[in-house]
């Protein structure tokens, strides 16, 4: 059983390492210095591939998706951050990771909320139908009205939603671009939106 788990971990790391090797960060050599062995390099390359394709992922998701141990993930993330290849931002109880220098603060907040189920569902629903009401959003997402209200308040505080007259996204083009560009790292609903709306994108973060 252990061999099977190790095999899956190695396969996962190799898949993301291939992405990282194809589009390496600046400063790769400095981040690798001081680590011995191919396993460390492969893990570092996997993180290099994972972070740009899943920006805004929090620590636990990154660790679990790459099948890393907690200490192992912390070590490599710290090395990459010290080398200036990635950056992190605190988001409530989460620390989220991004490729360095690629996103502004609003992009980071938007990606953080796109990685939360209810806010993401609300954002995608409002991108499809900007006139959707709180009751309609609750029904579509199969959650309670208070859940929608709480998520709406969070989105408003983040500068992504205006509740002065119903629910209106304040940055629809930005949110649409991010949802489409990273659809595969969200869910099937985001992928469906991307299939329908990719031709509408103009914003380029």
Automatic annotation (TrEMBL):
InterPro entries, alphabetized: ArsR-like_HTH, HTH_HVO_0163_N, HTH_MarR-typ, WH-like_DNA-bd_sf, WH_DNA-bd_sf
Matches recorded under Pfam families: HTH_HVO_0163_N, MarR_2
Lineage: Archaea, Methanobacteriati, Methanobacteriota, Stenosarchaea group, Halobacteria
Protein name as catalogued: MarR family transcriptional regulator
Record domain HTH marR-type: where: 123-164
CDD domains given in the database record: HTH_ARSR
Any one GO MF annotation of this record: DNA-binding transcription factor activity
Residues in HVO-0163 N-terminal HTH domain copies: 41-111
């Amino acid at each position: 059983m252990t061999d099977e788990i190790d095999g899956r971990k190695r396969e996962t790391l190799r898949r993301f390492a291939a992405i990282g090797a194809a589009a390496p960060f600046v400063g790769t050599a400095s981040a690798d210095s001081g680590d011995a062995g191919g396993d460390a390099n492969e893990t570092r390359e996997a993180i290099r591939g994972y972070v740009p394709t899943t920006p805004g992922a929090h620590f636990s998701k990154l660790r679990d998706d790459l099948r890393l141990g907690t200490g192992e993930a912390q070590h490599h993330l710290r090395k990459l951050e010290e080398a200036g290849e990635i950056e992190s931002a605190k988001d409530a109880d989460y620390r989220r990771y991004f490729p360095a220098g690629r996103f502004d603060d609003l992009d980071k907040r938007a990606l953080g909320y796109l990685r939360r189920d209810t806010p993401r569902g609300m954002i995608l629903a409002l991108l499809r139908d900007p006139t959707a009401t709180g009751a309609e959003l609750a029904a579509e997402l199969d959650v309670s009205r208070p859940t929608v209200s709480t998520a709406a308040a969070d989105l408003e505080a983040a500068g992504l939603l205006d509740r002065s007259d119903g629910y209106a996204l304040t940055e629809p083009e930005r949110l649409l671009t991010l949802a489409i560009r990273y659809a595969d790292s969200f869910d099937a609903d985001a992928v469906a939106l991307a299939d329908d709306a990719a031709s509408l994108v103009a914003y380029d973060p």
